[in-house]
Every structure is written in C-alpha cells, then in structure tokens.
C-alpha cells in the first residue's frame, strides 16, 4: 500500500474507533461491545498512520 492509502485508512479507523468509544460504548456488535472494539480500531489506525508517515519519509 502506498503512504496516502495508509494515512487515509488509518485516519478513518481512528475516527470510527473514537466514535465507538465515545458514542456507542455499551452497544453490542455481534459478540463485541463498543468500547473495546473502538479502542482496538483506534490503535490499529494509529499504527497504520505511523506506517504511512514512515513510508512517506522513505520516498
């Protein structure tokens, strides 16, 4: 994946994760609850953004 895709997907994951953590903390999605799922999505988003910045610096 290129750097722009990493930054875009990572940013989207962070936003969706924060919405789940702050807005739907007690909601259930299949066997997941909102807060832990949101935290995992936000952490994955941060990691993806970090990879995007590293890939952009190498270009």
Note down, in words, how this protein is organized:
The protein is mainly α. It is 78% helix and 7% strand. It has helices at residues 3-23, 34-58, and strands at 28-29, 32-33. The longest helix has 25 residues, at 34-58. It is elongated and about 40 Å long. The mean pLDDT is 87.
Shape: elongated
* H/I helix tally: 2
| Number of separate structural domains | 1
SSE string, helix = H, strand = E?
HEEH
Break the fold down into its secondary structure elements and pairings.
Elements: H1 3-23, E1 28-29, E2 32-33, H2 34-58
Antiparallel strand pairs: 1-2
Question: What's the short version?
Answer:
By secondary structure, the chain is mainly alpha-helical. It is built from two helices and two strands.
Which features characterize this protein?
59 residues, two-stranded antiparallel sheet
């Amino acid at each position: 994946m290129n750097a722009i895709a990493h930054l875009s997907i990572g940013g989207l994951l962070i936003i969706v994760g924060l919405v789940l953590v702050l807005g739907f903390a007690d909601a259930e999605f299949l066997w997941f609850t909102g807060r832990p799922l949101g935290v995992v999505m936000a952490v994955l988003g941060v990691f993806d953004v970090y990879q995007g910045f590293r890939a952009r610096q190498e270009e």
